[in-house]
Amino acid sequence: MKEDMDIKPTDVFLLTEPPGSDRSELCMKLLARRERARLYLAGDGVYHLLDRGSDLPPSCDVCACKEDVAARGVVARIRAEVTEEFYEILVEDLMEGDGRFFNF
């Protein structure tokens, strides 16, 4: 039972804003403070796949919407799962997750 108490909740971040926007900068600042996080990139948020690898903590998993990545011609330069089931995974994570949800 003690082992379960040591596991930190995973906070979920949904980012649809491009790099350089005020909301993106706020998202990255909050993300850096989390012990465990999952970042979902959709819309113009997928542009973060190009150059944001150094800003992401190692404990952060990244998932991107394959349709949005293809529509914008983005080639990921950071570790990320690019999937067609993006929204299904996001909803499942929100419904079953134990952390907080942030939307930018």
Verbal overview:
By secondary structure, the protein is of the alpha/beta class. The protein has a single domain, classed as 3-Layer(aba) Sandwich (Hypothetical Protein Ychn, Chain: A). 33% of the residues lie in helices and 21% in strands. It is built from four helices and five strands; from the N terminus they run αβαββαβαβ. The chain has a five-stranded parallel beta sheet, sandwiched between helices. β3, α3 and β4 (81-83) form a beta-alpha-beta unit. The mean pLDDT is 88.
Tell me the number of structural domains: 1
Q: Residue-averaged pLDDT, rounded?
A: 88
CATH first level: Alpha Beta
Sheet with the most strands, sense and barrel status: 5 strands, parallel
Order of helices and strands: HEHEEHEHE
Using DSSP, what is the number of strands? 5
Key words describing this protein structure:
4 helices; 5-stranded parallel β-sheet; Sulphur_relay_TusB/DsrH; DsrEFH-like; Hypothetical Protein Ychn, Chain: A; 104 residues; alpha/beta; DsrH/TusB family sulfur metabolism protein; 33% helix
Fold topology:
Elements: H1 2-6, E1 11-15, H2 22-32, E2 37-41, E3 60-65, H3 66-72, E4 81-83, H4 86-96, E5 101-103
Parallel strand pairs: 1-2, 1-5, 2-3, 3-4
In short:
By secondary structure, the protein is α/β, with parallel strands linked by helices. The chain has one domain (7-103): DsrEFH-like (Hypothetical Protein Ychn, Chain: A), CATH 3.40.1260. Helices cover 33% and strands 21% of the residues.
